[in-house]
Specification:
9 helices; ion transport; transport; single chain; 10% strand; membrane; 2 domains; alpha+beta
């Protein structure tokens, strides 16, 4: 499927610079078929991006984000033109604004988006509208609890690393509960323990307590945790955070 699309529509493949430059030819035309074509370009770019990322090959997302933002702006602009709500010569402005807004929201870098797009268009005439679009988009994204793409990719990579570190062999660690720990006076069931962690035993003074979900933790306890052998460092770090010492 990719090969024939790349052959007949080479502009929608690659990083995206060819697609951005080709939009000038589409926005000079009219008709609903242009709107549908631009929307299909956006959908294909998303599909190609998913396959490209899942392939594991080294690639960037910088220019593809700008290209997808440009297509959104062109699609919306041509929709407004066909509804006779906007003259066709203003569509290019929507392309510019959409690139800035899309980039600012996904990367979470509004100032970078404003400066980058201003440099690309080579004019300061769009500076104020670019700022408005970038910051309004960022505010809406925050209200919708959006996450920056680089942070999500980093978390995904870290999760993969943690999964790869699992050895499948059992190990034990002892975690002391100090005074001031946020775990004090909480029951076992109230605590979000690290993944693949089991509280095997609680040493309290001279007593050994076999815990259940209702067992409360007190200062001075020593928790005997059963963990995966390859997760020792990760569990130590998570337990330190869990006690509120970081």
């Amino acid at each position: 499927m990719v090969i024939p699309i790349a052959y007949y529509l080479p502009a929608i493949t690659g990083p995206g610079h060819r697609l951005i430059f080709s939009l000038s030819g589409f926005i000079t035309k009219s008709g609903w078929n242009i709107v549908l074509l631009l929307i299909s370009f956006y959908i294909l770019r998303i599909v190609f991006s998913i396959f490209s990322y899942d392939s594991g090959l080294p690639s960037g997302i910088f220019l593809p984000i700008l290209a997808m933002g440009a297509v959104i702006g062109a699609s919306y602009g041509m929709l407004m033109v066909n509804l006779h709500l906007m003259p066709a010569h203003l569509v290019v402005n929507l392309i510019i604004f959409s690139m800035a807004g899309y980039f600012a929201v996904i990367i979470r870098a509004p100032f970078t988006a404003i400066i980058l797009i201003t440099e690309m268009v080579g004019s300061l005439l769009h500076l104020m509208p670019l700022a408005v679009v970038a910051f309004v988009g960022l505010i809406i994204d925050n209200l919708m609890d959006g996450k920056p793409i680089y942070g999500m990719l980093a978390a995904h990579m870290q999760l993969n690393d943690m999964t790869q570190d699992e050895s499948g062999h059992e190990d034990q660690i002892t975690v002391p509960v100090y005074e001031g720990s946020s775990m004090i006076d909480k029951s076992i069931s109230q605590i979000s323990w690290p993944k693949n962690t089991l509280v095997k035993l609680i040493k309290r003074g001279s007593r050994d307590i076999i815990p259940n979900g209702k067992t409360k933790i007190v200062a001075g306890d020593a928790l005997i945790l059963v963990i995966d052998e390859g997760q020792r460092a990760t569990v130590y770090d998570e337990m330190t955070k869990l006690q509120g010492f970081i």
